[in-house]
Amino acid sequence: MLNNKLISLEKLAQTIKKAKLKKKKIIHCHGVFDLVHLGHIKHFSEAKALGDILVVTITPDKYITKGPNRPVFTAQHRAEFLSELESINYVSINRWPTAIETIKLIKPDVYCKGPDYRLHENDVSREIKNEINAVKSIKGKIKYTNDITFSSSKILNQHSDTLSEKQRLLLNKLPNKSFKDIKNSIERFKKLKVLVIGETIIDQYYFTEALGKSGKEPIMMFRDLNSEQYAGGALAIARHLSQFCSSVSLLSMLGEKGQYEKFISSSLPKNISKKFIYKKSSPTIVKKKYIDSINKNKVFGIYEINDEVIKDKNEKDFHKLLKKLIPKHDLIVLSDYGHGLVSKKSAKFICSKSSFLAINAQVNAANIGHHTIGKYKNVDCVIINENELRHELRNKNEKIENLMKSLCKKIKVKNLIVTQGSNGAILYNKKNNQFCRCPAFASKVVDKVGAGDAMMSLTSIALLQKMDINLSLLIGSLAGAQSVETIGNSLSVSKMKLIKTLEHLLK
Asked: What is the largest CA-CA distance in the chain?
């Protein structure tokens, strides 16, 4: 700590408690304060005038959802700057994503917000309403200052390099709609009925520590530290969609009964209805990944899998469920991992019965050269990566736009999305012969597993709702960005975080 103003939350609580014994009136302000401007300074001055001691707490870096490369300044730097302002008595870095727990901890007499928070409907996260309730619970008061409203996000977006040239170009192509209109469109996703089809995959991550080369053999030895288990495959897609849609159905494949059902049930939200077929003499698919705990790099992986295509009674049961479920849903999302669930016959059946079908057909270590998107025809939305596209068309060097047109013609795809890793993604709309390019929006990449599924989930909903293709791909890309910033499928795409990020990008 550089000065006696910048203190921990624990010390802050003790200090405030002592001040209250001396009848001091405590004022509390909370925010990100990534770029302190005149509006903030006036806000703090007006807040200080309401009492004796002004306390400011700031949001930690990991909870900030204002877009790529935010915050510009670390929590420590933001706190140090604020501690130099004369009007502020104490500054502390918050421990939680919101001020709710902090309000309960320090119990201010007055909680102070800026004028832009007077209209609670503008607060997409509902944080201010929850904060007001927290203030009421400690018998405090909430006040709104009258200072001039500035937007740190708007200033940074316009005058700094937080956004790349490609990101700015995409944002400039978005339809001339207000953020409120876009938010309302996303909120309408909840009315859609979605069916997710695909293999269940249990992702197991084993975190290890490298010990060094074996003394007896030319191999590396590792120490097993701990492990985590996540619901992957179609389960992860269903979880993403359940955050946006009130009604989500899941049709998936497990191994023999009794394997992982309890874990699966505990991993899925209550608004997901589940139907399973059980593949005889097979395990539920498990993908084990061994991770270097220091840098989070994957060392190697092991599959527990029987990837023979289902047949006979299994396939009959599958088709029976498809026939029953598909007509009841607005959107069919199929993630085909090539592990035995979807035969050519099943692919044809799903394509012929779906009113709006989105597909991710993934190539992985178990099926390279044997599993492609080519078995599907007449699809509304397809997402594949560039290598999968070139493999399907057996073309290494052709311009990617030409290949996308060729694939759309070959298998009759209306909207084709091709992901390009750190270079973002391209969407081609066949009807309008229109390309849309979206750069990557992830601030950091922890794990790429599930990014394509997350992108497909949100992009397909947006396209179904006839949203502009630039906006649709942006929404999907922001979902993908959330996915790569966490290990495995540990977290679902957050609707609140996605909307908040959009809000700050559009300022």
From this structure: 81
